[in-house]
Each structure stands twice: as structure tokens, then as C-alpha cells.
Please model this.
Amino acid sequence: MITATPISTLQNSGTLSVHLLGTVDYLAAMALQRQMVVEIADRQDHSGKLLICEHPPTLTVGCEGSRRQFLVDDDELQANLIDVHWVNRGGGCLLHAPGQLAVYPILPLKRIGLGMSRYHRLLEQVVSQVCAEFKTPTHAPKDQKGNRQPGLCVRNGQFAFVGTAVQSWVSHHGLFVNICPDLHLQRFIANPQPHTPVTSLAASRHRKTSMHAVRESLVRHLAHQLGYERYHLHTGHPQLIRTRKKVLLHA
Model:
């Protein structure tokens, strides 16, 4: 079990700007991240940014993914309004949908004293702390050989996934946490770990789980672990260009 003991000794003088975007098309969120990466790379302080949103049903394929993970053909994906994007983050193929929190920290990792390995552990630690507040224990996923894999599991499967990238020592992409998505959509792709089903926090708790409450807890713990004494919440972002997109939800 992953405990809630803090692992971070970071003390940052900068400010973390948190932008709550609601449901936003995947490519629009990526475009905003790219702008923020350039902005943070050009600064010299410890300030960072955090985007939190949900996406319409979308498949993304990271550097370790392949089309072999698709369980349906392109025609069925198109019929179900599922977009597919090949991206430069770590990890394999992931399904995004409303009810999943997409968490994108844009951070000057080198300036705040974080290497990639420790950064990944920090993201997982934050999710573990959030789950502890909801009285839900977590543990690390393992492959068929027993090797530890990125992300976190609850008792009935994996619900949190880590897929990060770094440019000029500024982080982007990030963390995806299933709170209450339509798990029926998972049928489109193979599970990241073949012997471990994909689940959600709500399914593990057998009760409704507030997206707002999880989001608040996640922001609070992430700011603390990163050493930010100050963080400011914003609704939306002036440079976000939204697109109109239908969202497919199953009853």
C-alpha cells in the first residue's frame, strides 16, 4: 500500500496558478499547454501552472502504445465519435471521457529540484493522499512479471494513470484519474495491464463520488507536495480556444 506520508521537502517561492477548464477538447488543452511550456521555460522563477479538465471521449496513444491495443476498427471509433491522437507523452493507450480528471502540471522541474522519477512518485503520492481522504486504500499496479508500473490501483482495478513529457525541463501532459467515467467506453482498448481491469474511484467505493471534492483535494495536496505555499484558482483561461464537440454518454 502507498501511504500518505509526504515525500516532498520542496519549498518554492513561486506561485502555482490553477486553471479549472471544465470539459474541453483534447487538442485545445494540448495547444494551451504548449503555450504555457514556452512561457514557463522563459521565466527564471519557480512559478508553475496547473490545468485541470475533463475531455470528451478520446483515445490517446503515448510513446509506448500501438494500434495493437485497439480492440475495434477505425469505423467503429468514428461511429462512436471517438477521436484518436498520437502524442509524445510516456505510457501507452488511454481512454479519456467525462468523469475522468485530466491533470496537467506545467512546472519548471529543474528549477524546483525535481527529476522525472521523483516527479512521477510525487504525482502518485498526491493521488494516494486524495484517496486516503475518501477512505480508499491504493496500491501500485504490477505487470505479469511482478514489476511495478506507473499509476495506482484500488481494490478492483487501476483507476489512475501517469503519462508525462518534458521539454526544456518543463513538464507537460501528466495524470489521469478516473472518478466516475462511463467504464463501458473502455471496451474500445485493451487494459494497460492485461490482468488488471480499469475501474474508477466511484466504482471502488460503491457510491457517488463528487468530482468537485476530489478536484479540491487533488489541488490542495499537489500544491503542498510541490512546495507551493500560494496557489490561485482561475476558472478557464483567456488563451483557451474551445471547439464545439458532441459528447457521447451511455445510460
Remarks:
- The chain has one domain: 12-235.
- The beta strands are 12-23, 48-54, 58-61, 83-86, 93-96, 100-106, 152-154, 157-167, 170-178, 228-235.
- Confidence is low (pLDDT under 50) at residues 1-6.
- The radius of gyration is 17 Å.
